[in-house]
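Homework help thread (please don't just give me the answer)

Our assignment gives two proteins as sequence + structure token strings and asks us to describe the second one. The first is just a warm-up. Here they are:
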Amino acid sequence: MTMLAKQTLSRISLVAALALCLLLGDGLRNGASSASAQDVHVSGPLAGAPAVKELRLWRDMRLHVEPFFAFTIGDEYARSLIVGGEVRFHFLDWFGIGGWGGYSVAQLDTNLSKEIQAKGVTDDANRLNLPSRENFAQQVGRINWWSGVEVHFVPFRGKLAMFQKVFFDADLDFFVGAAFVGVEERANTEIRRDSLTTPQYCVPLGAADPGMGQRDVGCAGENAMAGTNSQLDRSTRTVIAPSFGVAFSAFFNEFLGIALRWRGIPFKYNTGGTDSSQQGTPGHNQIDSGDRLKQFNNMFSFGLIFVLPPKIKTTN
């Protein structure tokens, strides 16, 4: 009896739920039909007026020229200070294309880099990674120049006020594209030792032994006859990577504005100039492309926008 009662209650509950769903669905359908059948009539001076009148088109068929100053964020060992420029042309007020480029004019050591220069371990076990504490800032990876092409979308815009006295138009600019980056890293090298009683020395990766008198003993350029310094020898390459970001733009008159921009560019490079991939593994005593680790490189910039032609267009 108990089992039959439970089954009966379950069936009744299911039927009641289905009936409720049908009633709600019919009510929503009828409500939607009645709502769609209603017309909103506007009377007075706003009758027949468009939703927006005399909308200022800051970007439509206009060229934006933007010199900027930028700095990188979240760097491990060195932060880049960048001076550059950007040019964008907008076919519509919400869509455009552009190109940008910049050059790293200075490098600032991070606190981690300063700690390594002061307290880094330079014994034989760590000889390849840190031949000399004093020169660590010269062995880290750096980004010398940046450039890219991007597509811009501007879905949000409005008017803002500061202290109810200064009013300006503002928008959010989302962009995505490809970046070309000039990377400088510590050159590929390997450390060798003939026996436990002879000192360690470094040579370019895969190179022949230059001989006893010309070896880079200690890997720090201490031998003037070696003609090489493993810690300071550099290599350069160009990296192609995706780029994306967002900018807040504010316009104070018809041809002048400012932009606060964040841009992310993920790619791999050897930030510390160390054997980071297999550090400490027996038989692996070299720095090569396998030591490049993925980095989420990003920068923040402040730019001054000049708009051409200087005369703005408005909608009817």
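The one we have to describe:
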Amino acid sequence: MTEEKPKSQQDVLFEHAPLPGQEKPAEEPKVEAPQFPVWTDNKARFIMVYLRYFVLLTKHGTYIDGFAGPQAESDETESWSAKMVLGSEPQWIKHLHLCDASRNQIVRLEALKKVQPIRDTKGRKLYRKIHIYHGDFNVVIDEILASGNISQKQATFCLLDQRTFECHWKTLEKLANYKKKPQNKIELFYFLANGWLERALAALRDTDVLQRWWGRDDWTALREMSRDERRDALVARFKRDLGYKSVKAWPIYERQNGGAVMYYMIHATDHPEAPKFMSRAYRRAVYPLEPIEQLKFELESESKGPQTQPPAPLDTKCSA
């Protein structure tokens, strides 16, 4: 008789039985490995490049940004996701919902909205609406989802660029459950702090914050996990508890030549093409943007054969 092995901390997190009728998670699609790292200064560009690819496929879209104010002091920066998305072409995203809890950030968002063009670069009128919300995104999300601006068939993306523990698990559930089958769920771009998460977990005294963030009372096990285990635990919950078909954690590094992983951008999607587009966006985030016609051709033919080698990355000396 063999001795039963003791449960690890990660086993404890996953011992919950599947809910009745809950489907087995789909097999994760394979994607091409990246050649160069994406670092913190490029994470907004990474998001913008992905959305650029995706709207070329969908021809429409809705963008939600739960923590939309710029993280840099200057507005003239490529680290501001909302600004990068608004300026990306083709400008086919029809509704943009931008939220922030800071009054100073709302002032900057309103100024950004005011300078947006009413026509695209070809002179065509832009039919899009920019909605700005001042408040806690975990509360505001109810207003956004009840606004009537997000149809069941509309391709919808939600960026959750939290500092550490700001996004509640119940908010993720609301986003994941908004659309009904057979429609694809709202795509999530969820930033998991990695570079300082141990310190934050150890220093936090208000345990209700962790309870709301993790959404279960077994959050104490997170303190005993390695960084890789915490990342994998969150990815597994996005697939099992939120029901996404594909969930991948993309590393965002400290600096241009690598260094420590500061964040993981967890991409959760139901769309079969999305993991491939995200892989391409990660590989292309440090390159010049492709011309639209070239990009259309490459996206259509990408799955038919090997890609040509891209040009040298912008301002980088990274090796493959």
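TA reply:
I won't write it for you, but here's a hint about the kind of observation we're looking for: The radius of gyration is 20 Å.
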